[in-house]
């Protein structure tokens, strides 16, 4: 399958919503659940054992890639995983992120907002067995700045198994695995993304073949 651009992916998602009446919420739910299933079935059994119940840290941005991460974390929690979320707070979460933050609250998922002090996040990443990168998706442009740059550096410094959802954040996170949502995106290759797995996000076959 040839990689597609961010613009092509947005068009596929638009058609899914307008022509096939599949909501963006449903696509996000499917993507996050598929990522969680991969982690449960293939990553946790192979992760280096530091403790009996492995610790998973999910780092989320305030855009839809962060929403995928929140969904993934919720499904991991529902499957009795030791999972904690951190999310960058910019004061204006995307609507689907806000919806999934509410779902996280009702499911008792631990979500901490990242503002300035990264000490707690740093300690969590250093002690993690698995890190899920849901910080920046295909909408990100240019090199990461400020707190995003700092978080990416902390993720890369960890010895945990690293998984990026859809694309590595700003292509500067160095993941062991990348879970591409629906299609592999332009810029993704084994040298930048580790092992690439295409996730089923609930798209109809007609759109998968375009």
> Which fold name fills CATH's third level, the topology?
Rossmann fold
Question: How large is the count of helical segments?
Answer: 8
Structural class of the helices, strands and pairings? alpha/beta
Q: Could you report the average pLDDT, rounded to the nearest whole number?
A: 94
The whole-angstrom Rg is 16 Å
N-end to C-end Cα span: 11 Å
- Beta fraction: 15-25%
Major sheet description = 7 strands, parallel
The CATH superfamily turns out to be YjeF N-terminal domain
Outline the low-pLDDT stretches.
none
CATH architectural group: 3-Layer(aba) Sandwich
Shape call: globular
- Number-wise, the strands total 7
Query: How many structural domains are formed by the residues?
Result: 1
SSE topology string: HHEHEHEHEHEEHEH
Set down the secondary structure blueprint:
Elements: H1 6-18, H2 24-43, E1 55-60, H3 64-78, E2 82-88, H4 95-106, E3 110-114, H5 119-127, E4 130-134, H6 146-157, E5 161-165, E6 177-181, H7 190-193, E7 195-199, H8 205-208
Parallel strand pairs: 1-2, 1-4, 2-3, 4-5, 5-6, 6-7
Helix pairs in contact: 2-3, 3-4, 5-6
Describe the structure in your own words.
- By secondary structure, the chain is α/β, with parallel strands linked by helices.
- It has one domain (6-208): YjeF N-terminal domain (Rossmann fold, 3-Layer(aba) Sandwich).
- Helices cover 42% and strands 18% of the residues.
- The protein has 8 helices and 7 strands, in the order ααβαβαβαβαββαβα.
- It has helices at 6-18, 24-43, 64-78, 95-106, 119-127, 146-157, 190-193, 205-208, and strands at 55-60, 82-88, 110-114, 130-134, 161-165, 177-181, 195-199.
- Strands 3-2-1-4-5-6-7 form a 7-stranded parallel beta sheet, sandwiched between helices.
- α6 (146-157) links the parallel β4 and β5.
- α3 (64-78) runs parallel beside α4 (95-106) and α5 (119-127) packs parallel to α6 (146-157).
- It is globular and about 45 Å long.
- It starts with 5 loop residues before the first helix and ends with a helix.
- The relative contact order is 0.18.
- The model has no long low-confidence stretch (mean pLDDT 94).
